[in-house]
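pasting for the record
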Amino acid sequence: MAQPFASLSFGWPLTFVPLSSGGGRPAGDALAEVPDDRKAWAVLAPPEALAAPSFERMVRIWSENRPDVDLFYGDDAALGETELARRLRLKPAFNLSLLAAQDYIGAPLIVRGSVLHQLGGVRGGMGEAGLYDLVLRAEAAGVVIDRIPHLLMAWPGLRPDAPVADRRRALADWIGARPFEAADGLAPGTLQLRRRFEAFPDVTLVVPTRQSGPKEGGLPYVVELLDTLAATDWPMERLSVLIGDDTDKEESFPASRWPFQVRRMATPRAPGEAFNYAAKMNRLWRATSSEHLVLMNDDVKVRSPGWLKALMTFAMEADVGGVGARLLFPDGRLQHAGMTAGLCGAAVAHLWHAQPGDRPTYQDWALVHRDWSIVTGAVFATRRAALEAVNGFDERFTLEFNDVDLSLRLRLLNHRIVYTPFAELTHREMASRGNALPAGEEVALFLNRWRAWLAEDPAYHPALSRDRLAPEPAEAADEFRA
């Protein structure tokens, strides 16, 4: 039976540290009761919060099985909420980009006693964002943070959210000398990281094409893309485009038409030769000279000037392997806001695919920057060093899975894969190359290579639905249901 944390007595080195309010400083001198010992643990939560019946057992199991982790967090419920999607907050594995956008971790925190003392406990001056600040400081100190993917705590009423002003102050302290600033996000109560560009690096956009276009005629898709790129908020002398063209229509790219450099590279195919996207893209990116690259399909169009700054905010970070954009169909439906495995029986799927772009999503995940395990290659910002580290695309994936496989191989090298909604473009999706099914041997190769990962995506949650493209918690995840 669920009981308030304040009434519990733990039978091992586990000390409850009550918070003065929804994430504020510990009440009284409770922190002094936590041993400065790696084998001791502290539970930080409000005294009125209810511990799940399995709380102590789960903490014991995970702390014993993950000796590398110093700070755990778990899922929580708000019993005053009637809608299941708002009642249950199911949390991905540690997700730095998401944490900057919203306090998705909240309470409870389970921290090693020695680490809590090393960090100086919960600081004053952060208002109700004390726990949020503690997690940010732990990340900055190199503390290993991970989730316990089980419901550990419930709020008796509604879930209190730390005021955005308190979180902004904590985030600004975490930013410190980093080249970022905290700004308002797209959803209420969310924030975004924006890079302060003191110098703009050279960026090459790598675009494969065969100059196809609308059936009713008009400009080729790639030319429409180039026309929209002219509005990009980036120094034009620092922007170049490499077009890999399967056709012989060189006249489509007059040098004087655009304010940035456009270079065409002929990539003809022999008669009857099948299209191999992975091989073509490997040939193209290796022909560039800049460190910073954005791989782009030719059937996308820029929607706002700041798209490249939003991508480069994360792509310039050494621990980031790739950054994906928010992509909409021409009619405003959502095409891409991140991908995961096993939805609706598919090996991988686009979350919220073809749903209205303004429809609410679980925890506003489509409207905040966050790490996913996979983003689409239709717009993919990366670095030459990252591509070289994994030898680019696996050319055995000729048409499908090559971008998914690339994301996952970059993650194996501990590179983060980030999605940002602040880079928003229109994507016709398959308009230029058509819709062809992948070969059976390619499907088998992908499934055999990534079977273990496909079973549990750390950027998702095992208790989220898999029978729909719009994730919702499963009823069975709620241990506090009546």
